[in-house]
Amino acid sequence: MDKSIDSVEAAVADIEDGAVVMIAGFGGSGIPVELLHALVARFRATGHPTGLTVVNNNAGTGAVGIAAMLDAGMIAKVICSFPRSSQPQAFQRRYEAGEVELELVPQGTLAERIRAGGAGIPAFYTATGVGTELAAGKPVETFDGRDYLRERWLKADVALVKGALGDRHGNLTYRLAARNFAPIMAMAATTTIAQVTRLVEPGEIEPEQVVTPGIFVQGVVEVPEPAQEEALIRSGEVA
Q: Is residue 123 a contact partner of residue 98, using CB atoms and an 8 Å limit?
C-alpha cells in the first residue's frame, strides 16, 4: 500500500475539530514544523480545525510550531510536562485569559501514558506525584508499603511526527534524539502522519533499522529541508 502524500497541506487536510493530536518533539528536536504550519495555514483559510487537544512535551516556544497554533486560537487544551519554555508567551497569554486548559503531567508519566495507550493498557500505577496537587482525584493504592497513583492511558485521534527516512509503506527511521516521543505516539494514535526528510522505496530501509513499522503509519510526506524550530525562533519568524 502506497501511503505517500504529495504535500503537507494534503497531509493535514482531514484533521477534524475537537481532535486529540499528539505532536512529537522534545524542545525543537523532532518537531514536525512543516505539518504544524500547514495546519495553521488551513485554520486561517477555513477556520478549521479548532478546539484541539494537543499532547506534547511542552506548550510551544516563540511564535512557531505549537505556539503558532496557540496564537491562532486552534487549541482548547494542552497536555504536557513543561508549559513554560524559554519563550512561553503564546501559551501564557491563552492560559491566563482562560482560553486554554492545561493538564500537567510529569514527563515519565506522560511517556508511559502514551506507551500504555499504544499497548492497550488502560491504566497503570506510579509513585510519581503521590502527595502532590497532581494526585487530586486520582485513585491511590498501596503496594509493598508504598502508595502509588493510578494513571490512565493516553490515546489520540492523530499523531504528527517527524522522521529521517520513510518508505511508501510507512516504515520510519529517526535522526538521533529526534526519535523521542514519536514511536510511542505513532502507536497510540488512530492516524499517524509523518513528515520525513527523504522518502524512499519499500526495501530501501534495512529491516533492522526500522523504528516505527508502517502498520502504525497512515501517511508519509517528504519534506527535504525541514525547518528547525530554534532557527525559526532566532530569526524571529512567525508562522
A: no
The burial of 145, by beta-carbon neighbours within 10 Å (0-12 exposed, 13-18 middle, 19 or more buried), is given as exposed
Cell of 199: 522518502
pLDDT in tens, 58-105: 998 888 999 999 999 999 999 999 998 878 899 999 999 999 999 999
Rounded-to-10 torsion of CA 100, 80, 116, 18: 20
What is the rounded distance in angstroms from the CA atom of residue 16 to the CA atom of residue 53?
11
How many domains does the chain contain in total? 1
Give the predicted TM-score (pTM) of the model.
0.94
Determine, yes or no, domain membership for 128. no
Cell (9 digits) for 54: 494537543
Helix (H) or strand (E) holding 159: strand 156-167
Residue whose entry in the numeric block shows the C-alpha cell 499504544: 118
Q: Domain range for residue 24?
A: 4-122+153-235
Name the grid cell of 3.
Answer: 501511503
Q: What is the CATH number of the domain that holds 105?
A: 3.40.1080.10
145 belongs to a structural domain:
no
Alpha-carbon span 29 to 25, nearest angstrom: 5
Model pLDDT for residues 95-133, shown as the tens digit of each residue: 999 999 999 999 999 999 999 999 999 999 999 999 999
